[in-house]
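sorry for the late reply, my laptop died twice this morning and i had to redo everyting from scratch. anyway the thing you sent over, i finally got around to it. pasting the sequence first so we're on the same page, its 169 residues, then the predicted structure underneath. double check i copied it right bc i was rushing
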Amino acid sequence: MIIRTYNDADEQGWLFCRVLSFLDCSYYNDVKTAKEKYDHPSICLVAEDNGSIVGLIDIELDSDDLACNGDERGAIIWHMAVMPQYRRQGVAGKLWKQAKAQLLSLGIHYCELWTQEDVPANQFYQSIGFALENSQTWIRCYAQGKSCLELLNSAEIGKIYGPEELVFD
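ok and here's the structure:
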C-alpha cells in the first residue's frame, strides 16, 4: 500500500471509497457525486492498494470556516475515510502521519475537524492527538410534519453554518 497525493484521475475511486466508508457511520447520508474543490490550498492524499483507493484524507489550509483565533494559520480536515475491509490496519494513521508532516512543513500547527456522535471515529481522532472542544457544537434535527416550519426562524437559519438538511415526513 502507498500513500500519495490525490490526482484528478482518482475521483471515481475517491467517491467509491468515501461512500462505502461512510455507510456504517453517522455520515451515511452525506453522499457526494463529485469531489469538492476547495477555496484555499489543500492537502489531499489517498491510500492506494493494488490500484484501488482504499483510504483518503482531504485537508483545506487557512479555510474561512476555521475556529482558530488570531493570526495563527490553521487547517481543517473535511474528509477522512478508510474502506471497511482496510480498517484496523493503520491506514488512517498513515494518512494522518503524512498529512501532518506536510502541515508542519508549511508552518501549520493547528488542525481541526468536525465530527458527530460517532464513537469509533472520535476515539480514533483522540488517539492521534485531537481533543474534543465542548464549546463548539453542531445540532442536527429531524422533525415530523410540516408544522415544524413554525419553529424555525427562517431569517436566522444559515447564519451558523446553515442546516445540513431539513427532513419533513
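Strands lie at 2-5, 42-49, 52-61, 75-82, 111-113.
thats about all i looked at so far, will dig more tmrw
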